[in-house]
Amino acid sequence: MINRRNALTLGAVGGVGLALPTESLMDFAFGPSWTVEPFTRALPIPQVLRPSATRIDTDVYRLTVGEGTAEIVPGVRTNVLTYNGQFPGPTILARQGRTAKVVVTNTLASATAVHLHGGNVPADSDGHPMHVIEPGRSRTYTYPNIQRAGTLWYHDHAHHLEAEQVYRGLSGLYLIEDARPTHRLPSGAHDIPLLLRDADISRDGELQWAVFGQANRSLVLVNGAAQPRLAVRRRRYRLRLVNGANERTFRLKLSNGAEFVQVGSDGGLLPRPVRRSEITLWPAERADVVVEFSGAADGSQIFLENIDGESDASRRILRFDVAGGPESDGSSVPATLAPAPIPKPPTVTRKVELSFDALAGTFLINGKAYDPERVDFTVKRGTTELWEITNLDTQFEIPHSLHLHLIQFRVLDRDGIPAAEWEAYPKDTVAVPPGTTVRILATFDSPYTGIYPFHCHFIDHSSTAMMAQIKIEP
Ligand SMILES: [Cu+2]
Q: In angstroms, rounded to a whole number, what is the distance separating the alpha carbons of residues 422 and 274?
């Protein structure tokens, strides 16, 4: 097992093989991934990005996309892609009603585009796969923040590059705060983002990339670190769970059997809190939860467990160390949170079929590979549409999901079974397991028109071809 001290020794002697203990040599020969000394490292919290300028109604932020290194495994520097040198990128803390202008400069040798996932933004700020920032160039994205407060994230969306570039590090959180909070959910230091993802790291500390390489991405990272720990007091915390993995689905529970009180979904607060003992998050999905540690004993350790993890490094993904006695806690979880809009009857019904062409090795939507020149559906702004989304991949049991840019939709049912309260609204990404049909109700209530993509959010699928686009007309 490699720990920090071993790794430092390696650096001192300058040779990789010399100071490796025997079991690591075995792993070096037979296993592709690191064995991490678990829970030796404090959970990193991504820095909140300070505006470079603040005007009456606008904050200006600067992001530089570039190469960098990150300490994913304790004591080891791994080459990654970064925003502002950080892995994951810094958190942008936006406020409802204030515009955020984000000036992005690309210092990579490849193109990039930034998509604000979950954002109600103009088409030219959506990070469309063809609206890329070429190497050496900059682009300004305008995010008006005219939507409910919630947990969004930004990530690379450059055509054919996004799967690898997101995997190598190009993602970060974008939190929208209420202009006037109507609740007293835990906040500040008690509001903790947990950006989850996985990675395959070689013995020499390098990220290993292969499209559809999910099977080898055996190390789960929380905010960019493998198996970190977080010291908590005996009180309530809000945890913002974000699945930033390319392909991995997380099934989460707390090791002490405590419940999560889910207060938010993809696009913000739920109508009312829902108690859940287990939470499943598909790629790009989010769940805001409140966890109560006041009943835990001082000195106890509680694990955030990923039930489906295939190894310790992907199963026990974060440890909460309870210490410091009970803390007076002014937070509360109200009985009602944010009402969902009243659903409107749809005027258009569409079918969306997700499939895999085994001969071509390509993922398709309605039998077609993505063509950025093609408009798949023309939508009239303001209308409500019913989409029936079917995953046809029963032969290989390939999971897919569907993400719509621009709006939050309502999940009606899955194979006729009504969506659970926590999955109904507000959603921008929905799980579509093999052989199932999911029906969603989408009201195109954004003020913006133009071309927006929709796609599977298994990014390795979408970056190959599993993407299509709508044109919203006035
Ligand atoms: Cu897919």
A: 7
25-29, 242-246, 329-333, range with greatest mean pLDDT: 242-246
CA of 457 from ligand 1 middle (Å) equals 6
Give the containing element (helix H, strand E) for 318: strand 316-326
**Residues 6+ away with beta carbon under 8 Å from 56:** none
Going from the Cα of 232 to the center of ligand 1, the distance in angstroms, rounded, reads: 37
Angstrom distances, CA of residue 376 to CA of 50, 123, 352, 370, 440: 39, 16, 10, 9, 18
CA 319 to ligand 1 center in whole angstroms: 31
Q: What is the CB neighbour count within 10 angstroms for residue 370?
A: 23
What CATH number corresponds to the domain at position 359?
2.60.40.420
Distance 363 CA to ligand 1 centre (A): 7
84 CA to middle of ligand 1, Å? 30
**Interatomic CA distance for residues 204 and 262, integer angstroms:** 40
Mark whether 193 and 319 lie in a shared domain: yes
State in Å: Cα 153 to ligand 1 middle.
20
What is the pTM for the complete model shown?
A: 0.92
Residue 184 CA, ligand 1 centroid: distance in Å? 38
Ligand 1 centre to CA of 427 (Å) is 17
Number of domains in the chain: 2
Per residue in 415-461, pLDDT tens? Answer: 999 999 999 999 999 999 999 999 999 999 999 999 999 999 999 99
**Domain, as residue range, for 374:** 348-473
In the reported structure, the alpha carbon of residue 455 is separated from the centroid of ligand 1 by a whole-number distance in angstroms of 8
